[in-house]
Design brief:
The complex is a heterodimer of chains A (about 260) and B (about 260). By secondary structure, chain A is an alpha/beta fold. Chain A has a single domain, classed as Metal-dependent hydrolases (TIM Barrel, Alpha-Beta Barrel), CATH 3.20.20. The longest helix of chain A is centred in the first third of the chain and has 17 residues. Chain A is globular and about 45 Å long. With about 260 residues, chain B is an alpha/beta fold. Chain B has an 8-stranded parallel sheet with strand order 1-2-3-4-5-6-7-8, with helices on both faces. Classes of the chains: A alpha/beta (about 260), B alpha/beta (about 260). Chains A and B meet through α1 and α8 of A and α10 of B.
Chain lengths: ~260, ~260
């Protein structure tokens, strides 16, 4: 079983001939590439997201879960700066659809920022994972001044060892060696996903060497041939491949294959 | 079906360790992936101030693998004595073409030295290769700033030198570039390698094949810097005929290089 733990949805786009056109193209790609389930969030709002903005994203995400039942699971996206509304939104989404299985945080705050702590504590209470947008780059830093990197996630893991955090896209374009090394010494509940358009040879083998296969999850972040292709090419044991493909994530969310 | 990889390398990259970067290791990787032949250039030569020793290292490295590895020289036209290096690459190494790196060599595609180099390649019948990005800009080393080449600038260079054949490696964004929007009026002297093009959702590969023709699209992986899997997946799923796939996988490049 192959679960893409980092994907996105956009629709329904009412102005389009087919409001679900992009999602259908994505599901076609999933079929062609052997991806069974994609875990989606909707970030289609100006950021930093307002309360109205993330609520609209999540209503659309919940609609996508219904439209593509069995192929999509979902993350509720919130801006932690609106603490009370964010906590209510997480509860709403998780109750609204059983296939909404976690929370997505973007770049409004670094995950180690105290402003995020209420969301972290809520996710610990509900026992759900957080997919945290992340990257470590020395260029274009002004575009995302509050982006999380692995060091922030590692610090959070030391403060909240029960928190289940997935550091997004090791192949997302930053210094992946830095990202992997910075995650070495923290809670085992701080994991990473393999997504992103970067297909540098050795990336996955290095991640397994430093972090262990137990802390990695297969993902594409919509770069589907990059995601599947690098997973296909990387050298690893069958046991590790199965863990990364889906077993680790299923364990994280308490589901069966 | 012959598989001929346009986009392969040997040597060292300054910013991270590259595995499988000797000729025997690269050939083993090619065997593992059913790649028959590959064009190779020196990674070391890109960052040496004087790139020529990198070309010489490449020639020595591939000496026992000439049936599989086709050398391309790395030439910096802004560096002293480059004409000598170009001739050495042709006459001693047997280069079928060159790779140029203006983003690392401190000149632009509009500079006179670049035009002079293209003219010299025209006179020698050499293919000129441009690499839109050698690595993702977001993972830049703190000592080096090398933004991606702009596709429209590359299109202008191709237009300025209609008698030269150009190959573009690691490119993306062709659909909105002059290569597609002015496909009818630009000279048909550019060849696009597919390792970064999308085969799903945006499906840039289909647009490029439909617009430029399958005869101007080339297979490439980026090995050993990149995993080969993504390029093979794109070829597996590209929406085109088997005949066109054969062209892209190897026939086009063999014809271009007269191999």
């Amino acid at each position: 079983m192959l679960i893409d733990v980092h994907a996105h949805c956009q629709g329904p786009l009412e102005d389009e001939d087919d409001p679900w056109g992009q999602e259908k193209l994505f599901v076609e790609a999933m079929d062609a590439l052997g991806i069974d389930i994609a875990v989606v969030s909707n970030l289609s709002t100006p950021r930093p997201a307002t309360v109205e903005g993330f609520r609209k994203c999540n209503r659309d995400m919940l609609a996508a879960l219904k439209e593509f039942r069995g192929r999509f699971w979902g993350y509720a996206y919130v801006n932690s700066g609106y603490s009370r509304e964010a906590l209510a939104e997480i509860e709403y989404c998780l109750e609204a659809d059983e296939d909404c299985i976690g929370v997505k945080l973007y770049n409004e705050y670094q995950i180690s920022d105290p402003a995020v702590h209420p969301v972290i504590e809520k996710c610990i209470e509900l026992d759900v994972p957080i997919l945290q947008h992340a990257g470590h780059s020395l260029v274009n830093t002004e575009a995302q001044p509050n982006i999380t990197d692995s060091a922030h996630a590692a610090a959070l893991g030391r403060l909240y060892p029960e928190a289940k955090v997935i550091v997004a896209h090791l192949g997302g374009g930053g210094d992946w060696e830095w990202e992997i090394k910075a995650l070495r010494d923290t809670s085992p509940n701080i994991s990473a996903d393999t997504s992103g358009s970067v297909t540098d040879e050795g990336l996955l083998e290095y991640a397994i060497e430093i972090l262990g296969a137990d802390r990695l999850h297969f993902a594409c972040d919509m770069s589907v041939t990059a995601g599947v292709g690098k997973f296909m090419s990387a050298k690893m044991s069958d046991e590790d491949r199965n863990k990364i493909a889906s077993e680790n994530f299923l364990q994280l969310v308490g589901r069966e294959a | 079906m012959m598989i001929f990889d346009t986009n392969a390398y040997l040597g060292h990259w300054f910013a991270r360790q590259i595995r499988h970067n000797t000729a025997p290791q690269l050939v083993a990787l090619m065997d593992e992936n059913d790649i028959d032949k590959a064009c190779v250039g020196s990674l070391s030569a890109i960052m040496y101030r004087n790139g020529q020793p990198g070309n010489e290292e490449l020639a020595e490295e591939i000496a026992d693998h000439r049936d599989r590895l086709v050398p391309f020289g790395v030439i910096n036209p802004d560096y002293a004595d480059w004409e000598h290096d170009l001739d050495w690459c042709v006459n001693e190494m047997g280069a079928k073409g060159i790779r140029i790196y203006p983003q690392y060599h401190n000149y632009t595609l509009a500079d006179g030295c670049c035009a002079e180099l293209c003219q010299a390649c025209q006179e020698r019948g050499l293919v000129v290769t441009l690499v839109q990005r050698q690595v993702d800009y977001r993972q830049s080393h703190w000592m080096v700033d090398a933004p991606d080449l702009v596709l429209d600038d590359i299109a202008q260079l191709c237009s300025n030198h209609p008698e030269v054949n150009f190959v573009i490696l690691n490119g993306i964004g062709f659909v909105r570039s002059r290569f597609v929007t002015e496909a009818d009026t630009l000279p048909k002297n550019s060849y696009i390698e597919i390792s970064r093009s999308a085969a799903f959702i945006a499906n840039e590969m289909k647009t490029v094949v439909d617009t430029l023709g399958a005869g101007r699209v080339l297979f490439g992986t980026g090995i050993p810097m990149k995993y080969p899997g993504p390029a093979f997946l794109k070829m597996q799923h590209i929406e085109t005929s088997e005949e066109n796939k054969q062209k892209i996988f190897g026939e086009n490049l063999a014809r271009l290089l007269d191999i």
